[in-house]
Automatic annotation (TrEMBL), chain A:
Gene3D superfamilies: Cytochrome Bc1 Complex, Chain C, Cytochrome c-like domain. PROSITE patterns: CYTB_CTER, CYTC. It is a multi-pass membrane protein. This is Menaquinol-cytochrome c reductase cytochrome b/c subunit. It comes from Thermoflavimicrobium dichotomicum. It comes from the Bacteria. Signal peptide: none annotated.
UniProtKB/TrEMBL annotation, chain B:
Belongs to the Rieske iron-sulfur protein family. Component of the menaquinol:cytochrome c reductase complex. The Rieske protein is a high potential 2Fe-2S protein. Transmembrane segments: none annotated. GO terms for molecular function: 2 iron, 2 sulfur cluster binding; metal ion binding; monooxygenase activity; oxidoreductase activity, acting on paired donors, with incorporation or reduction of molecular oxygen. Pfam families: Rieske. The main subunits of the menaquinol:cytochrome c complex are a Rieske-type iron-sulfur protein (QcrA), a cytochrome b (QcrB) and a cytochrome c (QcrC). Gene3D superfamilies: Rieske [2Fe-2S] iron-sulphur domain (2.102.10.10). InterPro entries: Rieske_2Fe-2S, Rieske_2Fe-2S_sf, Rieske_Fe-S_prot, TAT_signal. Keywords: 2Fe-2S, Disulfide bond, Electron transport, Iron, Iron-sulfur, Metal-binding, Oxidoreductase, Transport. Residues 87-160 form the Rieske domain. PANTHER family: CYTOCHROME B-C1 COMPLEX SUBUNIT RIESKE, MITOCHONDRIAL. This is Menaquinol:cytochrome c reductase iron-sulfur subunit.
UniProtKB/TrEMBL annotation, chain C:
This is Menaquinol:cytochrome c reductase cytochrome b subunit. Residues 5-223 form the Cytochrome b/b6 N-terminal region profile domain. The main subunits of the menaquinol:cytochrome c complex are a Rieske-type iron-sulfur protein (QcrA), a cytochrome b (QcrB) and a cytochrome c (QcrC). The lineage of its organism: Bacteria, Bacillati, Bacillota, Bacilli, Bacillales. The chain crosses the membrane at residues 39-67, 96-114, 126-146, 192-214.
């Protein structure tokens, strides 16, 4: 790199020199110069360290990129009523805020304008709200405290939104596989299925109506007859508990029949 | 002094090396992504039955239109892409299918369309001319003969394939 | 050789003062991770810029294949991701980079906040930083729609609904964002234009101011 530490600049002749000179005294002396310590030149000493940090960062970043494919869903279909909308994760906290009673319906302004407005304005005007000369976080407890409370609130809201979304996903009517067929339709399990309340939400062909489809439920990872009985008894997501009213034996038959619903 | 300079040099080289690593790490996937169409072999267009009997072909060039299905990135029209060939029999009775794309600047040539130049292919853009066998008439703008399509004959039917790359 | 080129340019433009200001300015010990490991918190800003560079580069390359149009957007994204060499990597860099940029920006903001670095005389740079944060959020919101999959479409609908609930001006904001009455063809085109022209232009200006101010004012002193 063409660097000129000796400073033997050639004489350049300009007509009417209005440029800023290099040897002009600085307006803002950096305040850390008052502190003893080892300072370093930006190039190459410090930049090398910064770029080494960047190299480590890049390796980590590329590992993430290569291990997780960027998701691409199905083409947008405005008529799809079963799709559960979810914003990108950094908007989740705001999204969750709008679900609470005091920030929705007639009070939606609280969630969309007032709270974000107050937080945004406070953040923007922080230098004028926190005017003390003190910089250490524990010496300005109000600013530090408010910020910590805000971070905790954002994390909690994001977590709540994520948890609720997961729960909804479990019981949402998903998209059924293309080749949907009831397997072993002549067995008693199917009769039991049709007689019970299952059919109302999961559909007569297991296609899913208000609840998710059950096609291929038999080869869901971790699914077993016992697990199905447990879900029938305790409910899951939006599904209420105790939906199967018949005898224990019938329930077992039904669960085993459901386990036969396997898709390739 | 000399020690100082060598340390500075060393740091500068390290800096260059790190910059190289960062730049290569970032740019390698992106550049590979950008040049992928160059690296890919052309997805050859197959032979297409143009719906013409070989016995119908005369020694007079006839414009034949046919459709090829070419995958153009994510775009692949259902109905295919319409191409034209000038089909005729040469003196030896061999079937020839000429591309209508003028070798000068890519306009479309026409057979016998200019009364001044009978029995020649004529390009209206810059008055390029070709003889019946596709050879460019010397002294006109084109510098090469018209391209020939690869052809196949199966059961008396004419099939046209990709353009023969000279 | 390099020396000769440098001299030739320097004789005409007198770049040495600028170069020396950039190259030779002293960086204090308390932000140097080689002296104190805990000083890595001072790297967040630089790393955010690094991610922004990744975003700009990968975005430029994605634009080689992407089409902002409701018929072709999804097929073109699917094509560039599934049928081109390294397509999944380049799109992955842009997709995950967006999230990483927000995380780094958040960490950088917190570092500045907790070290009280926004105080006199750096108030103005704090404001610029907040504006950068807003622009980045805007880039995230507009970029989310571009693949035109269900997730993108419905998230944008929700986002526009939220904007519409703002009193008085809400419905004008919503119509402006949508470019009409629904989230559709015009919306995709505007989000694309905002995402690749308007917001990046704004971002570049703000970043330039941010860096010039850091250079003028120096890094805040040790605690």
């Amino acid at each position: 790199m063409a660097h000129n530490p000796e400073g033997n600049r050639k004489q350049v002749h300009y007509v009417g020199d209005s440029r800023v000179r290099a040897d002009r005294p600085k307006l803002y002396p950096p305040d850390y110069s008052e502190f003893p310590g080892k300072t370093e030149a930006f190039i190459p000493d410090f930049l090398l360290k910064e770029w080494m940090v960047a190299a480590v960062f890049l390796v980590g970043f590329m590992t993430l990129v290569m291990s997780e494919l960027p998701p691409l869903g199905e083409k947008a279909d405005p008529t799809n009523t079963s799709f559960l909308p979810v914003p990108d994760w950094y908007f989740l906290f705001l999204y969750q805020l709008l679900k609470y009673k005091w920030a929705s319906g007639p009070y939606v302004v609280i969630g969309t304008v007032i709270l974000p407005g107050i937080a945004g304005a406070a953040l923007l005007l922080a230098p004028w709200l926190d005017r003390s000369k003190e910089r250490r976080p524990h010496k300005r407890p109000v600013a530090t405290g408010l910020m910590i409370v805000t971070i905790i609130a954002i994390c909690a809201l994001t977590w709540a939104a994520e948890a609720e979304h997961e729960k909804q996903l479990e019981s949402a009517p998903g998209r059924k596989p293309k080749e949907a067929k009831v397997i072993a339709a002549d067995e008693r399990g199917y009769q039991l299925y049709k007689q019970s309340a299952c059919i109302k939400c999961h559909g007569d062909q297991l296609q899913g109506v208000n609840g998710p489809h059950l096609i291929g439920v038999g080869n869901k990872p971790g699914m077993s007859a016992e697990k199905i009985i447990e879900i029938m008894n305790n409910g899951r997501g939006m599904m209420p508990a105790g939906m199967f009213q018949g005898s224990k034996e019938d329930q077992k038959v039904l669960a085993e029949w459901l386990m036969k619903q396997k898709q390739k | 002094m000399s020690k100082k300079v060598s340390r500075r040099k060393f740091l500068t080289y390290m800096l260059g090396g790190t910059a190289g690593f960062l730049g290569a790490g970032l740019l390698f996937p992106m550049v590979r992504f950008a040049v992928d169409p160059v690296m890919k072999k052309g997805g050859g267009v197959g032979f297409v039955d143009v719906g013409m009997r070989v016995s119908e072909i005369t020694d007079r060039p006839k414009a034949v239109q046919f459709k090829v299905h070419r995958k153009d990135g994510w775009y692949q029209p259902e109905e295919g892409e319409l191409l034209t060939a000038w089909v005729m029999k040469d003196e030896k009775g061999q079937v020839v299918a000429l591309s209508p794309v003028c070798k000068h600047l890519g306009c479309t040539v026409n057979w016998d369309s200019n009364p001044q130049f009978k029995n020649q292919f004529f390009c209206p853009c810059h008055f390029g001319r070709y003889y019946k066998d596709g050879t460019n008439v010397p002294g006109t703008p084109p510098s090469k003969p018209l391209d020939k399509y690869q052809i196949k004959i199966e059961n008396d039917r004419l099939l046209i394939g990709p353009v023969n790359k000279a | 050789m390099l020396r000769a080129i440098y001299d030739w340019v320097d004789e005409r433009l007198d770049i040495t003062p600028i170069w020396r200001d950039v190259a030779d300015h002293e960086v204090p010990e308390h932000v140097n991770p080689a002296h104190h490991f805990s000083a890595f918190i001072y790297c967040f800003g630089g790393l955010t810029f690094f991610v922004v560079v990744i975003q700009i580069l990968s975005g430029m390359f994605l634009a080689l294949y992407y089409v902002p149009d409701i018929v072709n957007a999804h097929p073109s994204v699917s094509y560039l991701q599934n049928e081109l060499a390294m397509g999944a990597i380049v799109r992955g860099m842009h997709h995950w980079g967006a999230s990483v940029a927000i995380v780094m920006l958040f960490l950088h903001t917190l570092r500045v906040f907790f070290t009280g670095s926004y105080k006199h005389p750096r108030e103005f740079n704090w404001i610029v930083g907040m504006l950068i944060f807003l622009v980045m959020i805007g880039l995230g919101f507009t970029g989310y729609l571009l693949p035109w999959d269900n997730k993108a479409y419905f998230a944008t609908k929700v986002g526009v609904e939220i904007a519409a609930s703002v009193p008085f001006v809400g419905k004008y904001i919503a119509t402006f964002l949508q470019g009409g009455d629904i989230v559709g063809a015009v919306t995709l085109e505007r989000f694309f234009a905002l995402h690749v022209f308007f917001l990046p232009a704004l971002l570049f200006m703000l970043l330039a101011v941010h860096f010039i101010l850091i250079r003028r004012q120096g890094i805040s002193g040790p605690l």
